[in-house]
Write a structure and sequence with these properties.
Blueprint (H helix, E strand, L loop, with lengths): L5 H15 L6 H10 L21 H23 L6 H27 L14 H12 L12 H21 L5 H15 L3 H6 L10 E4 L6 H9 L6 E2 L4 E2 L7 E5 L5 H9 E2 L11 E2 L1 H4 L5 E5 L6 H13 L1 E2 L8 E2 L3 E6 L3 H6 L5 H7 L3 E3 L3 H7 L3 H13 L4 H16 L8 H15 L14 H8 L5 H16 L2 H8 L3 H7 L2 H17 L4
Parallel strand pairs: 1-10, 1-11, 4-7, 7-10
Antiparallel strand pairs: 2-3, 5-6, 8-9
Helix pairs in contact: 1-2, 1-3, 1-4, 3-4, 4-5, 4-6, 6-7, 6-9, 12-14, 16-17, 16-18, 17-18, 20-21, 20-23, 21-22
Length: about 525
């Protein structure tokens, strides 16, 4: 017996792909088109948050309603012949049902996220009973071989995690450019891996054991990435108390390593016993001990960590064991580590300032944040998006006027070619300066050796004519900030300039610039 008509089968197969696909990658759109066929509504190629009033894409509601109808028809066929269903059809049926139940409850999950409670997600969850009833009614059907009885608390916890992850990745990492879209997709993978079905089966219990390293220039939102990951972790649900083990907002423990002395860092991380050093008047519990199994310790500016503490952190990552300062009792670290740096750790390892063994414990999952220059090169209109978001945060009721004035001033005075060396953090200060004083004086960061390498190669006669053009086009694009401006300066066609820009050389220039800012004391 087949559970699905041809039309329902095509829908069910496409919906299974949607459930397993990273929602921030373009593949989702192609599966939506297959699933909905003539009902599909074409929209933006990527999901992104804009400061204007955002409404949910129409395809989401259409998929939910279609899942309801398809699941109901398939269930009726199962009830008529419980032993006759095809195993593959039952697997597809399960995916359709899970999507349907998630769709029914996503509004309730959203209400939990935006709850005014100081500890959202804690306390009894009233709609769990309805969720469990749906899961058992559609999946716990007696006499059906090949249909596994659902682990309802796990499915509930997973649904809550998916809803949180989408919300925080979507709202914390803004912008419609492809660099921003790729960053959202990378954060989603960091939470769930590339295989959602494997995550649902097994990885949900082990993903916290893998550290995440966030790299990128100063001001590119590395802490926002860390928060999105921390607030999106799997939190078990206890059906007896009808409550989650922990609230998601309680699970993030940030520590800026560049702001503290080695002794204070060690005390903050590991804790200490009373009398273990001058000023230790009481016992202290460190973040590694405070952090629960579902929690995350965020180590910002990991490249600044003292050599002795690198050894101690390495042991925590290897063995999940640590000691308080002045104490011999071993304690276990249960949570996840997210580290961030604007330094080139490969260079730091070559100079002996960063331990390779620690790096290789951190780099199982690496996320690179794009610069504002990268974002604007892909989509110049994103400047207005960021300005309006900043203005809404600092400008209150007059935000729109502040945003318009700032955008006009920036385009007129700084121009499209301005490189924004301080990234979004600099843009925030620019908008604030313009709001307060109606002027902004940028401080250009030193371009550490950005042209020195080219000059040296020319002087040594090591470049062919084609190499020279490639190097110079890349350097001009790097300094001008756009293909249009680089083409104007070079007197060349924009397409020619774009073809000559060398991605490897461009990355070297970015690393040199980042290293220059680090050396000059930028944070």
């Amino acid at each position: 017996m087949r559970l699905f008509s041809h039309e329902d089968l095509v829908f069910a197969q496409a919906l299974a792909h949607i459930a397993a696909t990273n929602p921030f990658l373009p593949e989702r759109i192609s599966y939506e088109r297959i699933a909905l066929n003539r009902e599909f509504v074409k929209g933006d190629p990527v999901w992104s948050f804009h400061p204007e009033l955002w409404s949910e894409p129409p395809n989401v509601g259409k998929l939910g309603r279609r899942a309801e109808e398809t699941a109901a028809r398939a269930r009726e066929r199962i009830l008529k012949d419980p032993e006759g269903a095809d195993r593959h059809d039952l697997e597809l049926y399960e995916e359709v049902v899970l999507y349907m139940i998630y769709h029914r409850n996503r509004g309730h999950f959203f209400d939990m996220i935006v709850s005014p409670s100081p500890r959202p997600g804690r306390g009894r969850v009233a709609f769990y009973e309805a969720f469990a009833s749906d899961a058992n009614r559609f999946l716990a059907i007696e006499g059906v071989r090949g249909l596994k009885r659902p682990d309802v608390p796990h499915l509930f916890a997973l649904s809550w995690q998916i809803r949180r992850a989408f919300h925080f990745v979507f709202t914390l990492i803004v912008g419609g450019s492809m660099p921003a879209a790729r960053l959202r997709a990378a954060v989603w993978q960091s939470v769930f891996s590339h295989d959602m079905l494997r995550y649902r089966r097994a990885l949900f219990a082990t993903m916290g054991e893998f550290s995440t390293l966030v790299t990128g220039a100063s001001g590119t939102g590395k802490e926002l990435v860390a928060r999105a990951i921390a607030w999106s972790r799997y939190i078990p649900f206890d059906p007896r108390s009808a409550a989650f083990q922990e609230g998601h907002t309680e699970s993030f423990h940030p520590l800026n390593l560049s702001a503290l002395s080695p002794t204070l860092i060690e005390s903050e991380l590991f804790g200490h016993r009373r009398g273990s050093f001058t000023g230790a008047v009481t016992d202290r519990t460190g973040w590694l001990e405070t952090c629960s199994e579902t929690g995350t310790v965020f180590l910002d500016e990991i490249g600044e960590l003292d050599a002795a503490l690198q050894v101690k952190l390495l042991r925590v990552l290897q063995d999940r064991v640590f000691h308080r300062i002045g104490d011999t009792e071993p304690r276990r670290f249960q949570g996840k580590v997210v580290a961030a740096t604007n330094r080139d750790l490969e260079r730091e390892m070559r100079t002996g300032r960063f331990r390779p063994d620690l790096y290789y414990r951190l780099c199982s999952d690496v996320i690179r944040t794009p610069t504002l220059r990268d974002i604007l090169a892909d989509d110049p209109s994103e400047l207005g998006t960021f300005i309006r978001l900043i203005a809404r945060r600092i400008g209150g009721a007059d935000a729109e006027a502040i945003a318009s004035e700032a955008e006009e001033w920036i385009r007129k005075i700084l121009g499209k070619a301005y490189a924004w060396p301080g990234n979004v953090r600099e843009l925030e200060q620019c908008v604030a300066n313009l709001m307060i004083r109606r002027e902004y004086q940028p401080v250009e960061a030193p371009s550490a050796g950005s042209g020195a390498g080219l000059a040296r190669r020319i002087d040594e006669g090591r470049l062919t004519a084609d190499d020279l053009l490639r190097h110079y086009c890349t350097l001009t694009y790097w300094r001008s900030g756009s293909y249009e401006e680089a083409a104007r300066r070079l007197g060349m066609d924009r397409r020619t300039v774009k073809a000559k820009v060398d991605a490897t050389l461009l990355e070297e220039l970015r690393k040199d610039s980042s290293a220059g800012r680090s050396t000059s004391g930028a944070t």
